[in-house]
Specification:
By secondary structure, the chain is mainly α. The protein has 20 helices and two strands.
Length: 487
């Protein structure tokens, strides 16, 4: 049996006392969940607005952000192999920064996925509008919400299988799009063959047509595209073999970024000049309309619809698990911690889906602005989560250095240097968010959210002075000895 470093309080690798989940996610599913997390609406739809602002330099922005994401994921990977638990981000913040930060991180990550779910529902409704322009956006959004809700209530195996095939569609389609695009560039076929050229990357006012400042301001939207890569951490408590599957999933991240983001955008912006892309439309759909391949645009539209539904599906999964983690620590109503007969946190999922339904309302009230609003809020919440991962990693490494915690079997290259670089980068992105009109709204929402959490914490602490200490592992404040899971 595999020997893992685990906490005395858990007794089994990846199983805190409150877990109780079914380890129903196999290696095949975890790998595709990790891949699918890197391909979503932020690329398929959000890239249109980013290309319009930054021109060809958007490729550099995705590459830069991708490098930072790799630092974040390697930091998370080191923590996951030290102690793999389902509520990973909140658990590590709770352990290394204190109960309050675990509480804030758990609720903020939950908020991120609720609003991301709204964004994905909005995007899915827009994609349906491509085929059925007479159907209102809110009707499509509501229908998708109900179907995915049912999928998540059945079992984690069904979720994993649905997510596997969603991701398979996305991966296959993007590779196919890259191959077709390369064919247009090299063989010159299709309606776009006469104008397609690699020189489109610099021939129309240069790589930075609107200036470097304008390109940097797209980082808010670019970072949104990478939200969900950390979802692999949430699967830790339900993975069959986290010691093997999690490192493999994280180490393939650079290739996913190179192929699915940098590679796809390089091909698309070579086939079609950047000035033809605009906010509110998928650059992939537009590119294949331009190429003129029969049914290609409709096929691509189906793929991006799949991407949106995949991300919303993942959001329902993660919000239910995060609410259960909060409930197990006394930071949310105890009913959120209950599992149904299929070992899924049905109450937490139901509450989250009900709030995602607000996205349906947004699609009804302001369909043209719904996507932009929720993207900015989700990005701000995601940045907080990533910061907590990085700070927790830095604190963990400090404890290891002092001999108070065991070293992880999956250390991040460069130690804490990468975490500090990524942390400073995220702080810079936060400043840029504040300079954008829609982004400033998200920070205002974030401030209100923070005040609400602080008030909630004060109330909870007043009722239970020991809040947050129950079930906490011995961490940076005490000796922590490794336990052999085989014993």
């Amino acid at each position: 049996m595999t020997s893992l470093q685990v906490d005395k309080h858990t007794g089994n690798a990846g199983d805190a006392p409150q877990e109780g989940y079914e380890r129903g996610l196999g290696s095949r599913q975890v790998q595709m969940i990790a891949i699918g997390g890197a391909i979503g609406v932020g690329l398929f739809m959000g890239a249109g607005a980013n290309i319009e602002k930054a021109g060809p330099s958007i490729i550099l922005m995705y590459a830069l952000a991708g490098a930072i994401i790799f630092f974040i994921m390697r930091a998370l990977g080191e923590l996951l192999l030290y102690r793999p638990v389902s509520g990973s981000f909140a658990e590590y913040a709770r352990e290394f920064l204190g109960p309050f930060f675990g509480y804030v991180t758990g609720w903020t990550y939950w908020l991120m996925w609720v609003v991301t779910g709204m964004a994905e529902l909005t995007a899915a409704a827009i994609y349906m509008h491509y085929w059925f322009p007479s159907i209102p956006q809110w009707v499509s959004a509501l229908a998708f919400l109900v179907v995915l809700f049912g999928v998540n209530l059945i079992s984690v195996k069904i979720f994993g299988e649905v997510e596997f095939w969603f991701s398979m569609v996305k991966v296959t389609a993007i590779i196919g799009m890259i191959v077709i695009g390369l064919g247009v560039l090299t063989l010159g076929f299709s309606d776009a063959g006469d104008t397609a050229a690699v020189s489109n990357l610099w021939s129309h006012d240069g790589v930075f047509p609107n200036g470097i400042g304008s390109s940097l301001m797209t980082l808010q939207g670019v970072m949104f595209a990478y939200l969900a890569v950390e979802l692999v951490g949430v699967t830790a408590g339900e993975s069959e073999n986290p010691e093997k599957t999690l490192p493999k999933a994280i180490n393939t991240l650079p290739w996913r970024i190179i192929i699915f983001y940098v590679g796809a955008l390089l091909v698309i912006l070579s086939v079609v000049k950047w000035t033809e892309f605009h906010a509110g439309e998928s650059p992939f759909v537009h590119a294949f309309d331009k190429i003129g391949i029969p049914l290609a645009a409709g096929i691509v539209n189906f793929v991006v619809l799949t991407a949106a539904l995949s991300s919303c599906n993942s959001g329902m999964y993660s919000t239910g698990r995060m609410l259960r983690d909060l409930a197990s620590n006394g930071e949310a109503p105890q009913s959120f911690g209950k599992l149904n007969s299929r070992k899924t946190p049905a109450v937490g999922i139901t509450i989250s889906v009900a709030l995602m339904g607000l996205g349906v309302v947004l699609n009804y009230l302001v369909p043209e602005k719904a996507f932009g609003y929720v993207v900015s809020v989700a990005t701000a919440a995601g940045i907080w989560t990533w910061m907590m991962i990085l700070i927790s990693h830095i604190r963990y490494r400090h404890a290891v250095k002092q001999g108070r915690l065991p070293a992880s079997s999956f250390p991040a290259p460069g130690g804490t240097v990468g975490s500090w670089i990524a942390l400073l980068f995220l702080l810079g992105v936060t400043v840029m968010i504040a300079l954008e009109k829609d982004g400033l709204i998200s920070l205002i929402v974030g401030a209100v959210w923070g005040v609400g959490l602080a008030v909630g914490w004060a109330v909870l602490k007043g009722r239970n002075p020991q809040l947050g200490e129950r079930g906490r592992p011995a961490s940076a404040d005490a000796a922590h000895e490794p336990v052999d899971a085989a014993k």
